[in-house]
Each structure stands twice: as structure tokens, then as C-alpha cells.
Amino acid sequence: MEIFIQQLINGIALGSIYALIALGYTMVYGIIKLINFAHGDIYMVGAFVAFFMISIFDMPFSIALLVAMAACALLGMIIERVAYKPLRNQDRLTALITAIGVSFFLEYTMIYLVKPDPRAFPASFQLHNFHIGNIVISSKDLIIFAISLGLMLLLTYVVNRTKTGKSMRAVSYDSEAAQLMGIDVNKTISATFALGSALAAAAGVLVGMYYGQIEPLMGIMPGLKAFIAAVIGGIGIIPGAAFGGLILGVTESLVSGAGYSMLRDAVAFIILIIILIVKPTGLMGKNVKEKV
Amino acid sequence: MNNKKQGNSFLKRNALSLIVAVILVAVYLGLHFWIAGFEIGGTRYKLNNYYTLNLYLMGMNIILAVSLNLVCGITGQLALGHAGFMAVGAYLSAILTVKFGMPFIVAILAAGLAAAIMGFLIGLPTLRLKGDYLAIATLGMAEIIRVLLINIDYVGGASGFSPIPKLTNWTWIFVATVGTVLFAKNFINSTYGRACISIREDEIAAETMGINSTRYKTLAFCLGAFFAGVAGALYAHNFYIIQPNVFNFFKSFEYLVMVVLGGLGSITGSILAASGLTIVNVGLQKVPEVRMILYSIVLIAVMLFRPGGIMGRKELSFSSFKSKKERGKERGTSGN
């Protein structure tokens, strides 16, 4: 039982990271119907930016986190402008292949620049372990949980209460009609990419802090997992992404806790395939009739 | 008069096939002797081992690119798990030859069949999904295969399966490559191929015309998987060892680049791109990161500036070398 609860806590920490990345996926998908394969690599870039900020400029963790988020927001907007915008009217296969290309470009440019070896992420604050019976909750878990929760609440506020959020919802509902109502679609899409990328960067920094290690290919698996999380919750639905992330994180921790850690990645994909077969629109999705 | 004309064109058509056959045999024999080594006037000519290996790889890459093109280009379904099918073929064929002492031909066919069955099992449920979901489901399938292989001790786990006898030779590569290309060409021109193309163009319209889209998509998927399995068997028996991690997402990506670069839907495009990229790979062997950066830039640039790839959906054929006037004349006579 204690092991179970311990794994549950680890799972929630891991799950909130998946949720942060999944939110970006789902927002981008909701607005331009593109699986942004490069999203996981933006997360990696975020971790590296924070790494260099802390180790070279000796910044405190919180400032480094903000710098990384800002840098990745910019990167996300540039990627959208250069690679995705010219393809907006092409078929989706073209855009998807481009996204894969961007993903590999980021990974291998990073390998070229910083070498493929893993690097130790500097520990920037004191660790405390809180003991409740035999269960250990480290301050890392709490920080991850608090920051993710805060960012998610912030995102909810932005999407539901601000003008940008309103135009994002309008564009995702019907981009042509939104344009006719005077919404600048290009600006809105840029804003979506910026927001999503900033969240991914935050996740990257948190993972660097949590595991104490970063490397240029670290984005692939979490990127795919976050996509799975988005699909579980129903792609394009913001609360769904957070929910899916938590489910996936907890499941993975439980599988590892049961002694099958080698099969962890396979389990995530099996969940994906089952969800796709049983309920392709995700747990929170509604069935949409296809228009001819 | 009419009869004579028909007879002429019949002869012409056969002459064309004959020319192709002669060229193929010449290429086969020429390279066969070059690989084995021969002597003219005291000088010895022999293709060195490194180039021979890359020639073999070129053949395998052509098989994989052409077979992936059946799924991505002809049927319009983005599949990202081609390396997974290759892994199934490679491992099964290696088990058959090493542990059960089967002849190579049995191992190759079994590898293809196993991959095709795998393709059927994964294809039937997931092919109902649209574009992007299918891409992720196939990617997931390939990852599951890889993770499972890592965890199976019977085939060596993560450290790989060895020793595998080197049974792949030029004859096998040549026969498999030419066989795949001829099959793909005939498939496209068959009723099945036409149905697949109609699904690519507009799935809903195709279904309205009475085409069972799931059936044809699954068929194309299984055929693609079959040839990937065959290529996997050739791959396994060309190297001493196979490791699960060789067949990862990057491998699938390489074949996708070949197909996209050559042109989604063009068999000759796939052949050109697969051969060309194999040669580029040889040149960039020493700098793998630069190779991948180059690959991704090529992919993005092709998508942005020439989304159809080098060849678009066209095929390179003998008639495309003739002048426009001649082609017009030909069309005129055949129309009479």
C-alpha cells in the first residue's frame, strides 16, 4: 500500500510534466489541426536554455525558468512562421512531414552544438524530504506540482478570460468566420504557438531539475507521451490534456513500481492504440460527424 | 492496314520489355562479375567490400522506399512504423536460419509473411483512423516491437542477436529489388492499385463509389509490410548481428525522407531518391549529426518549395525521353 501511494506521488509529478507538454500539443492541434512533432524538442531546448542560464550566468532557478519560457515562446513563433505558415493551405500530410523534419532539425542541431552526451543539471536549491509514515515526498515533487498547477491555472485564465484567449477559441472553432469578424488569425496562431512552447519549456526545466540530467534527444519520448496524453483526454480539449497527462504519468509509475520498468514505454503506446480503437476522440471528446 | 499497325505496336511493346530485360540482365551480370572480381589483360578489377556493402544497402533501401511508397504515396496513409516491420522480418528470418537451420529462401518468405501478418493485425483496427492518428499508431506499434525485442532474452535482448550467417549476396539483393519494383509497378496499374489511388485522392468519394476503403488500405499496408519484412531478412543476413535499437524511429524516418524526396506516389522517384541518399550517406558517414541535419533541412525544404518531391507523381519511362512531337504522333496513331 505504501509503495502504491509512493508510486502514485511520483506518478503525479511525472504526470503534471506530461500534462504541461500535452497542453501545448492540444492547443496547436485545436487551432491549426497539426500534430506539432517538434513540440517535444522545444521542451528539450527549454531545458538547455535554463541549463546555460544557471551554469553560465548563475541565475536563480525561477529567473532561468522565465528566460527559458520566453526563449522557447520566441522559438515556437519562429518555427510556426518559417515552417508551418507557408503550408497552411496544403494537405495535412505535408504539414505533418514538415513537423517531423523540424523535430529532427532541432535535435541534431542541438547535438551538433552541445554534443550528444548527457549533462548534469545544476541543483539550484536545497532539497527537503518530507516523511509521512514511510512515504517520502521530496520538495522536488512539490515544486513540480505547484509550478505545473500554477501554469495550468494561468493558461485557463488566459484562454477563458482574455481577448487573446477568446480569439484563440474563435479561430479554433471556425477560422474563416473568425477572420470575417476582424480577428487577426495569423497573430492568434502565433500567440498559441508562443503559449504552448512556453509551457513545454517550463516542463523541460522542471524535468531537468527533477532528474538532474539533460541531453539533446530527451524530447522524443516525453513528446510522444505527451501526444498520447493529449489523445487520451481528447485532442483539442484543454482540460482533457491535463487529465490525460496525469493518467499516463500515474499508469507509468505504477507499471515501473510493479517491476516492469523496461516495458513502461510500450505500455504508453498500448494505451494509445486501445484508446484510438475504442474511442478515437478521447475520453473527453465528443463524436463529430465528418463533413463532405 | 489496321492489323498491321496493331502488329507493329505489339512488336514495339515487346521490344521495349525485351530492352528492359536485357538491360537488367546486363546490370546483374556486370555487377555480379565486378563484385566477384575478374581479370582483363593482367589487371584485376574488383569492387571493394565497402562499395559492395553500400550497393547492397542501396538495394535494400530501394525495397523499403518503394514498399513504403505503396502505403504513403499510393494509398495516401502516413505510416511511421516501417522499421518495425523490418525488425519483425529481420528477427524472424534470423531465428529460422540460426535456430532452426532453414534455407534462406524460406526465411525470406517467412519474414515477409510475418511482417504482413503484423501489418494486418495493426492495420485492420488502426486504418480506420485518419492521417495523423494512423501515423502515431504505427509509430507506437514500431516502438512496441522494439521494446518487446529488447526484453526477449531468446533473441539476445538489448545486446542483439548474433551470430547470423552472411547469406545475403548480390543475387538475392538484385532479385528482391527488381521483384519489389516490378510488383509495385504492376500493383499500381491493377484494379487494386487504382482503388488505392482513388482512396488517396478522396476517401469519402471513393467509398461512395463502392470502394471498401478499409480493405484496400489494409491490403496496401500488408503489401508494404511484406516487402519491409523481406528487406529486413536481407538486412539481418548481411550483418553479423542485429540489435533492436537499429530499428528505431530514425530508421523509419530515413525511408520516409526517401519516399517524400522522390515524390509521394512515384515508384521511379523512390528508386532515384533511395539510390541518391544512399550515396550521400556514404559521403557523410563520418559526420552522422550533419547527415541528420541535412536530411531534415532537405525534408523541410522539399515540403515548402516542392511538396511533390523530385518526381511528383510522375514516373520516369522510356516515352518521357522522346520528344514531345514524337509522343504526340504516337498518341495520334494509337487513337486511330
Automatic annotation (TrEMBL), chain A:
Coiled coil: none
Topology class, membrane: Multi-pass membrane protein
Keywords: Amino-acid transport, Cell inner membrane, Cell membrane, Membrane, Transmembrane, Transmembrane helix, Transport
CDD domains named among the record's database cross-references: TM_PBP1_LivH_like (cd06582)
Transmembrane segments: 12-32, 39-57, 63-83, 95-114, 142-159, 189-211, 226-250, 262-278
InterPro entries membership: ABC_BtuC-like (IPR037294), ABC_transp_permease (IPR001851), BCAA_transport_permease (IPR052157)
Primary localization: membrane
Location of the protein in the cell: Cell membrane
Family: Belongs to the binding-protein-dependent transport system permease family. LivHM subfamily.
PANTHER family: BRANCHED-CHAIN AMINO ACID TRANSPORT SYSTEM PERMEASE PROTEIN LIVH, HIGH-AFFINITY BRANCHED-CHAIN AMINO ACID TRANSPORT SYSTEM PERMEASE PROTEIN LIVH
Protein name per UniProt: Branched-chain amino acid ABC transporter permease
TrEMBL record, chain B:
Record Pfam families: BPD_transp_2
Keyword Transmembrane helix: yes
InterPro entries in alphabetical order: ABC_transp_permease (IPR001851), LivM-like (IPR043428)
Subcellular location: Cell membrane
CDD domains: TM_PBP1_LivM_like
Protein's membrane topology: Multi-pass membrane protein
Keywords of this entry: Cell membrane, Membrane, Transmembrane, Transmembrane helix
Protein name according to UniProt: Branched-chain amino acid ABC transporter permease
